[in-house]
Amino acid sequence: MLSDERTLLVGVELGEETSQITCFNPNTYEPESICFKSDPEKYLIPTVLFYRRDTGDWTFGEEALEWNREKDGVLVKHLVSKASQNELVVVDDREVEPKYLLERFIKRLLGMLKVEYPNDTIRSLVITVKEKNMILIDNIYSALQGLGISKLRASVQSHEQCFVNYAMNQPKELRVNDIVLFDFNEEGLRYYQISVNRRTEPPTVVLNKRDFKDILPYSLLQNNTDMENVAYVFESITMNVLHKQIVSTVYVTGVGFEDNWCKDVLKKLCVGRRVFAGQNLYAKGACYAAREMIGEGKLKNYLYLGEEMLAVNIYTPMFTEAKNIEYPLVEAGTAWYNANKTISFIPDGEIEVELLFEYVVGNQVEHHFVTMDGLWNMERKTRIEMSIEFSDTHTCIVRLHDRGFGEIYPSSNRVWEKIIPIQGNTTTKEQSKGE
User: Fold this and answer.
1) pTM to 2 decimal places
2) Model confidence over 8-18: pLDDT tens digits?
3) Are residues 168 and 135 located together in one domain of the fold?
4) What's the CATH code of the domain at 69?
5) Number of separate domains in the chain
6) CB 72, CB 57: distance < 8 Å
């Protein structure tokens, strides 16, 4: 059950063409879509901004499209791709950075919450995007920072992560066996399959995916007047990937499924399985992820090891509060681009820092050391700042900075760096049924 605090758990899907916003309903304890002007048909918000020249005002979504037809100004589209490429946008002879455009759009998107929840504030927010682009992710965090929302209560996650959050927060009978998603968007058809290995502790969740965009591209849907042929291609794909698979639930999402061309195929998929179709799966999954951030979700009992998730816990031995501890730095199941960590400490004569890498699959522990050559060439106290970041799931970069000790002992400006390789996931698809 959610906390009684009058704060909001919010999920946002930020898309190139349309975006969505969801929020946990305090009465049902489930995500609900926040709709434009409370119209239940308008939960898809066009990802556009409009700048009005005569007043200098900005608006977004449907209203931006209306203003573009009626008023003098500039319509700004493709906010996500522009932010992905750090592309400057000319607005009324001024160059505007894409992070500021994202800030304006997200501010107005979050402003929709005020209609339903005028007195509440955001406790945690997850924004999900299709493209895992570090430039885009950094621009989103910068935009949130501009709105006063720090990384302590916000996270950017991929569609895959949010699908897992959505699926694993559904009723138990929908996740007894594997869970499947068909996503048909402008890039074509993709297939995702969630498997849970309940023989590990904690149980591990693995996401496998396959790309069928060459077999069923979006252009085939647009250009083919024989929709029975498109349905035949889709049915052939479903029969191939689901052959001999034990699947409890099938989800379908994406603009490619908006018409009824595949209804007969979906009926066949219903034999022995539950099938759900809709366009708000990722947005609601982001909302579930926002609940996970405050420790009140169902996924906390599992360890998700997707292709972008770290399969290792990282600690450093430390003496603090009169006792020796293993201080946690990175938690397994965190996306590598969200796993950066910085701490400061005062070394007590040591010339190296020890890091413990604990692999959750196989229970293997590795000891790594970063040596601070030349640290004690002169007698003085100092404060060391240690930062950990990742360039991908297999590469950890550790940097130690000598920050000095106030004005008495200035910094030597020394920096020590070590790159530590991380083993890949070794999880298998073996699964025990039941919970």
Assistant:
1) 0.86
2) 999 999 999 99
3) no
4) 3.30.420.40
5) 3
6) no
